[in-house]
Amino acid sequence: MKIRPALKPIPPIAIYRVAIECSQTRNGGVIQQATSPRVFTLDNGQRVRAAQKGDYVVYDDGRQAQIITA
Questions:
Q1: Mean pLDDT of the chain
Q2: What b-and-e string marks burial along 28-67, b requiring 16 or more CB atoms within 10 Å of the CB?
Q3: Residue 58 domain flag
């Protein structure tokens, strides 16, 4: 029996960071409802949507900010 050589791992080409529902922003806001059709399933089985341009971030004091860049 011939043994195959181990395959070399392929290095990642790019890393994409995605904000999802319930993500906390750098300034402490939370994305409460995302509208993207892209859905992720978390390790605990919860399904969440990716945030996108036009979605809102809500802060503890009630202020809202709209995501204007993607």
A1: 91
A2: ebebeebebeeeeeeeeeeebbbbbeebbbeeeeeeeeeb
A3: yes
44 inside domain: yes
CA–CA distances in Å: residue 6 to residues 11, 42, 51: 15, 31, 39
In a domain, 39, yes or no: yes
What does the pLDDT look like over 35-47, one tens digit per residue?
A: 999 999 999 999 9
Q: Model pTM?
A: 0.71
Q: Which domain holds residue 60?
A: 30-66
- Name the domain count of the chain: 1
What whole-number percentage of the chain has pLDDT above 90?
74
Q: How many CB atoms lie within 10 A of CB 23?
A: 16
Specify if 38 maps to a domain.
yes
